[in-house]
């Protein structure tokens, strides 16, 4: 198991979600670290590429790797994926939620701010709700899945506001 690597990676890439994971039962923490670390990889796509096309290629690579797991693969040497693979094979993590996360991150590749507050709320919903739904499946709190959208959107809004200085330093703006 790659738990120490995943924990360290997440602690650096997304300290808020790392702290959140510490409230989960110990048995599922490595799975949460894998999920959140996977998400951090998607989030950093925009800052790692010089143009939209390269970003789309990177996201497509992640999409292909997830699809391989759904087709029976084991995630290979990628710690995030090899840790999530058993959950996926058991049918615990819906494919469409991974697809939604990947699709939502394509918006990051365009230098276009949402046109309205509603657009920003939609962006926050699309980028956080599928992740939180997957998290709830991992911690076996499926009863909350239908209720997580508002919490996710608000968390995404807070996360976006916290990132405003960084985004502006990169000549990016997510505020309408």
From TrEMBL:
InterPro entries: Isoprenoid_synthase_dom_sf (IPR008949), Squ/phyt_synthse (IPR002060)
One Pfam short name: SQS_PSY
Gene3D superfamilies xrefs: Farnesyl Diphosphate Synthase
SUPFAM superfamilies per the UniProt record, alphabetical: Terpenoid synthases
Name of this protein: Phytoene/squalene synthetase
